[in-house]
Amino acid sequence: MTELATTHAHPLEDDCCPGAQGRLMPRERAEDLADVFKALADPARVRLLEYLAASRGGTACACHLPAALGITQPTLSHHLRRLRAAGLVEGDRRGRWVHYTVRPEALDRVRAYLDLPTDGAEDRCC
Amino acid sequence: MTELATTHAHPLEDDCCPGAQGRLMPRERAEDLADVFKALADPARVRLLEYLAASRGGTACACHLPAALGITQPTLSHHLRRLRAAGLVEGDRRGRWVHYTVRPEALDRVRAYLDLPTDGAEDRCC
DNA sequence: GACCGACATGGACGCCCGTCGATGCGTGCG
DNA sequence: CGCACGCATCGACGGGCGTCCATGTCGGTC
């Protein structure tokens, strides 16, 4: 279904919520954030990111991770690919091994979102 | 596939990483975090949570959200159910409407995870 | 140059998820 | 009491994701 009014004032007025406003986060920003959350929505990737962050300089090679995580090498490669696509890590080749590094910028965007006040001032309806 | 050694020291020793340790986050904790991230891994739910947080007291009724989000009422109910299952929101019935409230505790756990140092001290291999 | 090891890619399978329409349930109103 | 309304649930459909095996690709080594 297509996107409906986010700034429309009229359809939000009725007997239930006379003065309510439907201010929502822009769709594009919500999709970007959801993409990062999707990249984190797997136990293996949660452990991977924490493992890299706990390494010196946020960098480590992935050579032994399949055995440690209990997954095969293609599956690990798939997870690292998803983390890379989300901008959470980056990898550079050093000889025959690839080292992966945490990119804190993407994490900062997520942190900024999660710092929502949980006690806003907008008066809602009903 | 079943979980393999996380504290095992032996299989992680070879010519590549002589002294490397494979310390990983416990599997259960990673699954719990991943469940919360799964609950956030959708644009509609990202907007929903931000909408609730921007409301007075972190509470709002959901009566007009289907139209604002461009989804049907069953779909909105499905998303709110997932947010509730993840402990991110809770809903109580007031008359014929249901009000949803943000529960900051679940967000705190996620924030604590995302505060990973990105410059750890553990020396990794290769 | 031929082999080997680390990693990426492709294809296949099963499962979960987002979305919908239709329906059921509970509450307030007339 | 019956109707209308807000919300939850059910069943179905399509798409995406995690996982694997098999294979390809690139860099080092001998």
Automatic annotation (TrEMBL), chains A, B:
SMART domains: HTH_ARSR. This is Transcriptional regulator. The keyword Mitochondrion does not apply. The gene is arsR. Keywords: DNA-binding, Transcription, Transcription regulation. CDD domains: HTH_ARSR. SUPFAM superfamilies: Winged helix' DNA-binding domain. InterPro entries: ArsR-like_HTH (IPR011991), HTH_ArsR_DNA-bd_dom (IPR001845), HTH_MetalResp_TranReg (IPR051081), WH-like_DNA-bd_sf (IPR036388), WH_DNA-bd_sf (IPR036390). Residues 25-125 form the HTH arsR-type domain. Transmembrane segments: none annotated. It comes from the Bacteria. Signal peptide: none annotated.
